[in-house]
Amino acid sequence: QSALTQPASVSGSPGQSITISCTGTSSDVGDYNYVSWYQQHPGKAPKLIIYDVTNRPSGVSNRFSGSKSGNTASLTISGLQPVDEADYYCTSYTGSSTLDYVFGTGTKVTVL
Amino acid sequence: QVTLRESGPALVKPTQTLTLTCTVSGFSLSTSGMCVSWIRQPPGKALEWLALIDWDDDEYYSTSLKTRLTISKDTSKNQVVLRMTNMDPVDTATYYCARKMTAVGTGFDYWGQGTLVTVSS
Fold first, then answer.
1. CA–CA distance, B57 with B91 (Å, rounded to integer)
2. Where do the H-state alpha helices sit in B1-121?
3. Average pLDDT over chain A, rounded to whole?
4. C or N: which end of chain A has fewer Cβ atoms within 10 Å?
5. Which of A87, A101, A105, A107 to mutate: most B Cβ within 10 Å?
6. What percent of chain A lies above the pLDDT cut of 90?
7. Of A91-95, B69-73, B78-82, B113-117, the least confident
8. CA B8: distance to chain centroid?
């Protein structure tokens, strides 16, 4: 199972909006609405920020939003803040023959 | 308060078997739908899903690693155990356990702090 493809880095100025893409195939992202996104600060465990493509867990800022079109899912961060500087990973369920999950390659977000 | 804590050896030799334990609190491993997964992250690299066990003891494994992995749980001890055989230096990584409310969907909502395992002779 190949990793989902994310841009290596995305940057933006405070207050701006940025979008991170996560491209998979018709066997994972394209076939299931089970994409989730994680934020990871250096030396810390990942934190769930979006699940099932568009849903935010309780306590996660509404500046984070998710969407999907075809084989590509996207995470948008609006009103970018310095605290958003972190690595972001997507993951998708892929159940072609058995339950399996595939993570993205990761994106480093830099706040300029 | 939901917590997960990984424990195990920090250093293993090549060809050895790694055994990691995830001790959970704040929820029950026997609650319908509840799952725990193991996920790893080599230094400076991306996350990789390894295995999942659900409340009913169904086990699921990464297609690429399934011949080397065994996941199990002891509900009475609130523990999930991962065994990985034939360790190699490329298996050097931080190993996380994470909770999922259902096997499919919902995301990994709580994570342990991770435990770094180095494979070296």
1. 26
2. none
3. 95
4. C
5. A101
6. 90
7. A91-95
8. 11
Contact residues on chain B for A68, CB-CB shorter than 8 A:
none
Name the residue among A3, A93, A103 with its Cβ closest to that of B104.
A93
Q: What is the mean pLDDT of residues A81-92?
A: 97
| pLDDT value, residue A59 | 95
- Give dist(CA B29, CA B54) in Å, integer: 8
Tokens matching residue B44: 């400076």
Region B76-101 average pLDDT: 97
**Tokens 């706040």 found at:** A111
Convert the pLDDT of each residue in A3-13 to its tens digit: 999 999 999 99
Nearest residue in chain B measured CA to CA from A104: B46
Place of tokens 């993205």: A104
Task: Please check whether residue A102 touches B, CB under 8 A.
Answer: yes
Tokens 């290596």 correspond to: A8
Nearest chain A Cα distance for residue B39, angstroms: 10
C-alpha separations of B37 from A21, B17, B62 in Å: 25, 19, 11
- A-B contacts (CB, under 8 Å): 70
Q: Which two three-digit tokens encode residue A47?
A: 């934190």
Residue A39 structure tokens: 């934020």
Q: What is the total residue count of chain A?
A: 112
Can you tell me whether residue B27 is helix, strand or coil? Answer: coil
